[in-house]
TrEMBL record:
It comes from Phoenix dactylifera (Date palm). One of its GO terms (molecular function) is mRNA 5'-cap (guanine-N7-)-methyltransferase activity. This is mRNA cap guanine-N(7) methyltransferase 2. PROSITE patterns: RNA_CAP0_MT. Its main location: nucleus. Signal peptide: none annotated. The gene is LOC103699075. Residues 23-303 form the MRNA cap 0 methyltransferase domain. Transmembrane segments: none annotated. It is an enzyme of class 2 (transferase). GO terms for cellular component: nucleus.
Amino acid sequence: MIAPTAPAAAPPPPPPPSSFVSRAESAHHRLYEFAKTALIKIFVFPYATVCDLYCGGGADTDKWDEAQIGHYIGIDASTSGISEAREIWESQRKPYTAEFCELDPSIENLDSYLQDKGIPADIVCCLQHLHLCFESEERARSLLHNVSSLLKPGGYFFGITPDSSTIWTKYQKNVEASHSKGSGLKPNTVPNCIRSENYVITFEVEEEKFPLFGKKYQLKFSNDITSETHCLVHFPSLIRLAREAGLEYVEMQNLTEFYDDNRAQFAGMLFSYGVNFVDPRGKLLARSYDMLGLYSTFVFQKPDPDVVPPIMTPMLQDGNHAHEERHEWIGSSWRQQIPADEEKPGHADTSLGPSGILVEHEKGILGPGPADLRFQDPF
């Protein structure tokens, strides 16, 4: 188990460093920046080589500097995004070396382009656009094979993506509520919208069955002018395709659970991102819980044959992947079929069992860590 090494959080820290986002930015952007910073602090070590997929315009440049990495490889399909990232790195004279490549990691063979760019990498991350590859199975498979080819044995692939289980659960509850109320919907139609005080999710097609790939929706936060187009990331398909590419599943964890498990380390840091995100004891307030709960971490590892035993992905059923990959998601969640009245906020502490259904297990790599770094619950 990899556990956080920083000391327990004291009272709110001094003014945050330059990588912390401006208070003028929207709440969900600040929460997302916090989550990225926390993951980087857990996984990235000094002098590491990092490959950043869909790196965008260099928004995380200071985070990599603070992590004291040795070499950075930024990859993005956008010409403007790569140019901006390169300009930020050059203008700020960061101490780490860097390469910037205009490539689409879900289409092109990255290994052939990056042989002289510092690979293999210790870390490959995709901190915000994993959903782009879930437009089709071919794109998802291509991205994961690229990740595997870029990683050193023992290296980690991690990131953040909208939590398809949370979204699906909310959608199912909407459908059930509309049926129970007899809300006057036309025959054979279902609600295509999920509303929260903080965001609205609108599916492009009204349907009760979700395909494994290409299920698009619009995500608009309350303070944003425009919406973003996403594809649902079907987690069992992600695990299966990663395993085919030689990557072992480690953990997926809703960001609310991730924060709770690491609250002793990160409560003070989250306070720096916004005083209205946590209460005086570091617990998430309702608004931040709602927004963080929309996202999940994902962690995979490329096995190192020299380390025994390697982390092993629980085997899913062969054949037609009957349990983890139907062309519809059944029940309230793909993770574990439980009655709706037994559901709890966030995710259950789960992993895939032999049947392909997720079952209770110990905390994983992002889990609670040493007891002396844990808050005592209840308060």
